[in-house]
UniProtKB/TrEMBL annotation:
It comes from Aminobacter ciceronei. SUPFAM superfamilies: Outer membrane efflux proteins (OEP) (SSF56954). Residues 178-237 form the Multidrug resistance protein MdtA-like alpha-helical hairpin domain. This is HlyD family secretion protein. The chain crosses the membrane at residues 31-51. Keywords: Coiled coil, Membrane, Transmembrane, Transmembrane helix. Residues 177-204 form a coiled coil. InterPro entries: ABC_heterocyst_DevB, MdtA-like_HH, UPF0194_transport. It is found in: Cell envelope. Signal peptide: none annotated.
Length: 406
């Protein structure tokens, strides 16, 4: 087909009937979409199996199916946990797994320097790693012992001085009371003598022998003697109205003695700053300081009650609903060469961040977990007592509680 000279070639080809011809590009896009739909479905299935939403987990729990077609590494497991082969082969859909840490009962106790030790350095270690000690047993001594003991000697000397002052004050009060009694007796004697003299002078004045002036002098002597008796009685009353130990001077001296006794008790208590004692009964797990060194911030030593070993297990929050106290637990650690057995003892009440991290560098370290405590049996406790903080993988048989309930 040829075009006439000077005419332009048409941009859109048309069919013989005048309808526009369909573009081949639209045909390819349609078939490309048809091919992508299975790809998206496959990716959605893989992601759903990997993250396992709650409906999918319920489906596997009801049907009893094991995702992964019975492979050695089922994918119906919490992410970021690589199970040992012997554990993965016997994995059940109802099992719950989590990372675990072997600990003594009550966890590891950090033994720090006594409160108020200041710049004291470690003088002597009294125990070694592996020793079993009771609560309150001395573990180490610090070099501030001599200074604290000298303060005790000074407080004892001060107390002795205050006690002597109390005895002196009490003796003075008793002497003053006896002296006041003697003064009163003498004043009464003088009064009787003055009264007798007044009586004689009055008779002499009546017979004209004594003058009026002599009689007045006798009367004045009687009045003076009476005043002396009154003064002596008042002085004696100040000492005899209350018990000698309740006299103000004695009370003050007694308070001084009490203050000295309190000061002595305080400095004796301060001597405990030179001694490091065991806060619990348990085994010495590690020692972080040597004699001559200041107690480090991480503590002088670590100890724990290894007579009952435990395991702290972190369970993902979406799997905790099926965990109950008393369910059997199996822990696997490659370092031991055998499994540890125990039961769930308690379940935590809070949801927190994951603290135990697997060897996977791409593991999710921001997962929300709940911590449970597992009590190991006697044989497992004996084996694990030398592996505090050992990391393991725990498998909880949640179907055991269901069988027991039936």
């Amino acid at each position: 087909m040829s075009a006439t000279p000077g005419s332009d070639l048409p941009m859109d080809l048309k069919l013989a009937d005048g309808m526009p011809r369909r573009s081949g590009r639209w045909f390819h896009k349609r078939y490309l979409l048809v091919l992508l739909i299975p790809v998206f479905m496959f990716l959605g299935g893989v992601l759903g199996m990997y993250f396992q939403p709650v409906p999918l987990q319920k489906f596997y729990e009801i049907t009893g199916l094991t995702p992964g077609a019975g492979s050695a590494s089922p994918i119906a497991l919490p992410p970021n946990i690589e199970l040992p082969a012997q554990l993965a082969e016997t994995m059940l859909p109802s099992d719950v797994v989590g990372l675990a840490r072997v600990i003594p009962r009550g966890d590891v106790s950090i033994v720090a320097a006594p409160y108020g030790a200041g710049d004291a350095r470690l003088s002597e270690l009294l125990v070694g790693v592996g020793d079993w000690v009771d609560r309150g047993t001395p573990l180490a001594r610090l070099d501030n012992r001599d200074a604290l003991e000298s303060a005790v000697l000074l407080a004892e000397a001060n107390l002795a001085v205050r006690q002597a002052a109390l005895l002196q004050t009490r003796s003075t009060v008793l002497s003053s009371r006896d002296e006041a009694q003697a003064t009163l007796d003498q004043a009464r004697s003088n009064l009787r003598e003055a009264e007798a003299n007044l009586d004689r002078t009055g008779k002499l004045a009546g017979s004209g022998v004594a003058t009026g002036a002599t009689l007045d002098t006798a009367r004045a002597a009687v009045q003076g003697a009476a005043l002396s008796v009154t003064r002596a009685e008042a002085t004696l009353a100040r000492f005899s109205s209350v018990h000698p130990d309740e006299q103000p001077d004695v009370v003050v001296a007694g308070r001084n003695v009490a203050a000295a006794e309190a000061d002595l008790a305080r400095v004796k208590l301060d001597t405990q700053r030179a001694l490091v004692v065991a806060p619990i009964a348990g085994t010495i797990l590690d020692i972080h300081a040597t004699p001559g060194q200041r107690p480090p911030t991480e503590g002088i030593m670590e100890m724990g009650d290894t007579s009952q070993m435990m395991a702290e297990v972190e369970i993902y929050q979406d799997r905790i609903a099926s965990v109950r106290a008393g369910q059997p637990v199996e822990l696997v650690a490659s370092a031991l060469g055998r499994t540890l057995l125990g039961t769930v003892e308690s379940i935590g009440l809070t949801v927190g961040r994951q603290g135990l991290i697997s060897d996977d560098a791409a593991a999710n370290t921001d997962a929300r977990v709940i911590r449970i405590l597992v009590a190991l049996d006697a044989s497992s406790t004996k084996l694990a007592s030398g592996y505090t903080n050992l990391e393991a993988i725990a498998r909880i048989d949640t179907s055991a509680a269901t069988r027991a309930a039936r």
